[in-house]
Design goal:
The protein has helices spanning about 15-25, 25-30, 40-50, 55, 105-115, 135-140, and strands spanning about 5-10, 60-65, 70-80, 85-95, 125-130, 145-155, 160-170. The longest helix is centred in the middle third of the chain and has 15 residues, at about 105-115. With about 170 residues, the chain is an alpha+beta fold. A hairpin with a 4-residue loop joins β3 and β4 (about 85-95). It has a single domain, classed as Aminopeptidase (3-Layer(aba) Sandwich), CATH 3.40.630.30. It is built from six helices and seven strands, in the order βααααβββαβαββ. It is globular. It has a seven-stranded mixed β-sheet with strand order 1-2-3-4-5-7-6, with helices on both faces.
């Protein structure tokens, strides 16, 4: 999938070091709902055995610069894919040095097109901590609507965090 500034592409073996860094960063664990480090071996197996979304129920796409394909800006994921109910959860991670440049917005817009026109989904959704104003602004700009609040949903640094459920139903 190609946009103005970005290309969303499948993960490749050369992405192993980037994935290893992300998956073992405790700051990322909060948004990924994991607390378990990943070995390089497990990540290599994940990359080598990546199947289509209908088999694995998830899809990770690497965000690269259109004019410099070797530069990985971040990743955008679909997971908890439910083909019967035609929905999937969306997650996105942008490397620190590329934040605030419009890459997340473009990636979400590209993935929306794929979700609704290729996968024929009825909705995509995400969970955002209520204090993450920048993230909420991004998803608002992309047409997502807050449809609920989960109180004390995430445990982080000795406190409970509330999260919003955001949905996009075209």
């Amino acid at each position: 999938m190609t946009g103005e500034k970005l290309v969303l592409r499948a993960i490749e073996p050369e992405d192993i070091e980037t994935l290893y860094k992300w998956e073992n960063d405790p700051e990322v664990w909060l948004i990924s709902s994991t607390i378990t480090p990943y070995s390089r071996f497990n990540l290599e197996q994940y990359i080598l055995n990546a199947r289509d979304i209908f088999t694995s129920k998830q899809l990770r796409l690497m965000m690269t610069l259109k004019d410099n394909p070797d530069t990985v800006v971040g990743a955008i994921d679909l997971y908890d894919f439910d083909p019967l109910n035609r929905r999937a959860e969306l997650g996105i991670l942008v490397n620190d040095q590329y934040r605030g440049k419009g890459y997340a917005l473009e990636a979400v817009e590209l993935l929306k097109e794929y979700c609704f026109h290729t996968l024929n989904l009825h909705q995509i959704y995400c969970y955002i901590p209520t204090d993450k104003k920048i993230n909420l602004h991004l998803f608002d700009k992309c047409g997502f609507v807050i449809t609920g609040t989960h109180r004390h949903w995430l445990w982080s640094k000795d406190q409970w965090l509330d999260v919003y459920l955001l949905q996009l139903i075209p």
